[in-house]
Design goal:
By secondary structure, the protein is an alpha/beta fold. It has a single domain, classed as Glutaredoxin (3-Layer(aba) Sandwich), CATH 3.40.30. Helix content is about 35%, strand content about 20%. The chain contains 5 helices and 8 strands; from the N terminus they run H-E-E-E-E-H-E-H-E-H-E-E-H. Strands 1-8-7-4-5-6 form a 6-stranded mixed sheet, with helices on one face. Helix 2 packs parallel to helix 5. The protein is globular, with a radius of gyration of 19 Å.
């Protein structure tokens, strides 16, 4: 009986350790992590959203980077659209988890003036990002940060970090952590109407 209780305690401790490791998957240094990356959030944490509607909205800092097709992507060219600017990395579990929702919502709301943009912070750049995007079937623009965009939008508490920019080019929401697609879609639909 004591042996059974002892083994159950060890089993419980082992499970707790595994969960702890999974929940901090984006908090440890990663080999693909760029030097300028912020510390990572817990994979299991709920997204914390900051709604800037109650105060004066800040302009979204402009940037120009090259997309995966070799074309220049400039954020300010997309004024008049609702832009979901997502900072992510291929090695980040919560980032990978939210991408299928982004793909689905992009497909549904593209014609309504909603645009998702992925800003990868992978140190190995297109070498890892391009095959990842192809494998996942990402249907929205992706750029690889050279450190300048992270500086303009940071400092971050971790990734994924997402900024929702209104049609006037102002940041309406800032979200640290994984976004729930079901909660995001109605917000984007409402913003696209105004």
């Amino acid at each position: 009986m004591d042996y059974f209780i002892y083994n159950n305690k060890l089993y419980s401790i082992s499970i707790a350790c595994v969960i702890g490791i999974l929940c901090t998957a984006c908090t440890h240094k990663q080999s693909a992590r760029p030097k300028s990356d912020p510390p990572k959030t817990h994979a299991a944490s709920a997204a914390s959203s900051v709604d800037s509607s109650k105060k004066k909205l800040k302009n979204a800092p402009d940037f120009t980077l090259t997309d995966r097709k070799g074309n220049k992507f400039t954020l300010s060219d997309h004024k008049g659209q609702v832009v979901v600017l997502n900072f992510w990395a291929t090695w980040c579990p919560p980032c990978r988890h939210e991408i299928p929702d982004f793909i689905k919502i992009q497909k549904q709301l593209r014609d309504k003036g909603v645009l998702f943009v992925g800003v990868s912070v992978d140190r190995n750049g297109w070498k890892v990002v391009r095959p990842f995007a192809k494998k996942f079937g990402i249907n929205y623009p992706i750029v690889v940060d050279n450190g300048s965009v992270t500086q303009k939008y940071g400092p971050f508490r971790g990734i994924p970090t997402t900024f929702i920019i209104n049609k006037k080019g102002k940041i309406r929401y800032a979200v640290t952590g994984m976004i729930n697609g079901k909660a995001l879609k109605p917000v984007l639909k409402k913003m696209a109407k105004h």
